[in-house]
């Protein structure tokens, strides 16, 4: 008789278009082969495809953009529903992603000792909170409820260290990097080794303060005799502000806001260079996806992710206004538009370096293929 698959639940806010949601969408494609999977969403927002074998349970029909005080009451309702579901479905392993679901899993660990509870932190906790109140709440509740769970995994060594040093997390912590599906189409690196009339730079990410797109605009503003153009993919609250900055710097013929697109790789393939300008990251999916396509990349040396991706986590010191040539791309300091400007011009003026780093990007991204990462993740689930 065939052994019954273990029951596993994946709890998160929604399956919207964010980085954590992308990771979940990739993992459940593999999890369904080894587990009976219940995907539990706080809110009914689904951007990524879900395999038929996965049961989807939404705890609310409302959208995710709810005021904080209403989300608190939602949390209490969701906790009751989720605890009931854990018991009814005889869940063996309860995995959660992001802060609110992680706190809920911590409470489940108190209510139901039979369930193995595993939580996943996806952003740099000290920098990724929305305001001082949020940080204060995190400092109080993370130690109480995170430490009730069996284990924690994140996507960066820096995240785990921050949780240990600044939030008092004592449970076993490991790093499991974000997986990626290697794209069918990729850039031919040799095509980047030519002096084109125009070098096409691309970036992708929500138009918010954390992504710091204004840094790239200011970098472009100072490039003399520019034969470079930029496409910024994504939508968000700062769209109007960035549009005005582009006009103010007389860059309307150089910079395009491409909006939200579903075919990001199509834009990547038509580009010559990718830039990540974030103040902070958990693990930058867009950077990894650009590398998988074969784009030479420039990134801020922000916490966390870029140093791990582009320099195998070996510490670097970057002078103000400069960049460093790392193992798999170029790194600049946070919010240093002069350093970024110099890095962009370097790739413009050195087509052989573009070709070299295109090949290195492809090589590095293969270490994050879904098959490899899922094997690590599955072993992790079985170990704890």
Task: Give the overall pLDDT as a whole number.
Answer: 92
Strand line-up across the major sheet:
3-2-1-4-5-6-7
CATH structural class of the largest domain: Alpha Beta
**Number of E-type strands:** 14
Kindly describe this structure.
The chain has helices spanning 19-34, 68-88, 99-111, 132-146, 157-167, 214-221, 239-248, 264-269, 285-293, 306-311, 337-349, 351-365, 370-383, and strands at 7-12, 36-41, 55-58, 93-97, 116-121, 151-154, 173-175, 199-204, 228-233, 255-259, 273-276, 297-300, 323-325, 330-332. The relative contact order is 0.11. The mean pLDDT is 92. It has a seven-stranded parallel sheet with strand order 3-2-1-4-5-6-7, sandwiched between helices. It has a seven-stranded mixed sheet with strand order 10-9-8-11-12-14-13, sandwiched between helices. Helix 6 crosses helix 11 and helix 9 packs across helix 12. It folds into two domains: 7-179 and 369-383, Rossmann fold (3-Layer(aba) Sandwich); 189-367, Rossmann fold (3-Layer(aba) Sandwich). Strand 5 (116-121), helix 4 (132-146) and strand 6 form a beta-alpha-beta unit. It is of the alpha/beta class and 384 residues long.
């Amino acid at each position: 008789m065939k052994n019954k698959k273990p029951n596993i639940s994946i709890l998160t806010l929604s399956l919207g278009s964010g980085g954590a949601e992308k990771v979940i969408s990739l993992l459940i494609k593999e999890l369904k082969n080894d587990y009976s999977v219940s995907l539990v969403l706080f809110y009914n927002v689904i951007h990524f495809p879900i395999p038929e074998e996965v049961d989807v349970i939404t705890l609310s029909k409302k959208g995710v953009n709810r005021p904080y005080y209403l989300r608190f009451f939602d949390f209490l309702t969701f906790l009751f529903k989720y605890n009931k579901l854990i018991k009814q479905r005889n869940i063996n392993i309860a995995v959660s992603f992001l802060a609110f679901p992680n706190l809920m899993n911590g409470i489940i660990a108190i209510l139901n000792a039979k369930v193995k509870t595993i939580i996943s932190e996806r952003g740099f906790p000290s920098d990724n909170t929305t305001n001082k109140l949020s940080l204060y709440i995190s400092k109080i509740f993370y130690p109480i409820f995170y430490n009730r769970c069996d284990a924690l995994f994140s996507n960066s060594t820096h995240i785990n260290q921050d949780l240990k040093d600044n939030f008092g997390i004592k449970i076993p912590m490991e790093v499991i990097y974000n997986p990626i599906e290697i794209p069918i189409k990729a850039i031919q690196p040799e095509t980047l080794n030519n002096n084109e009339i125009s070098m096409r730079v691309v970036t992708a990410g929500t138009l918010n303060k954390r992504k710091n797109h204004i840094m790239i605009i200011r970098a472009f503003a100072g490039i003399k005799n520019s034969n470079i153009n930029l496409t910024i993919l994504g939508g968000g609250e700062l769209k109007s502000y960035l549009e005005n900055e582009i006009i103010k710097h007389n860059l309307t013929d150089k910079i395009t806001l491409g909006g939200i697109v579903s075919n990001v790789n199509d834009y990547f393939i038509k580009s010559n260079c990718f830039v990540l300008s974030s103040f902070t990251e958990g693990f930058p999916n867009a950077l990894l996806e650009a590398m998988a396509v074969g784009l030479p990349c420039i990134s801020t040396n922000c916490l966390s992710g870029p140093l791990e991706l582009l320099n195998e986590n070996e510490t670097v010191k970057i002078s103000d206004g400069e960049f460093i040539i790392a193992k798999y791309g170029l790194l600049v300091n946070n919010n240093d538009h002069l350093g970024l400007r110099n890095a962009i011009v370097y790739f413009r003026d050195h087509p052989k370096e573009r070709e070299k780093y295109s090949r290195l990007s492809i090589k590095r991204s293969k270490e994050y293929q879904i098959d490899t990462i899922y094997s690590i993740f599955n072993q992790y689930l079985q170990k704890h």
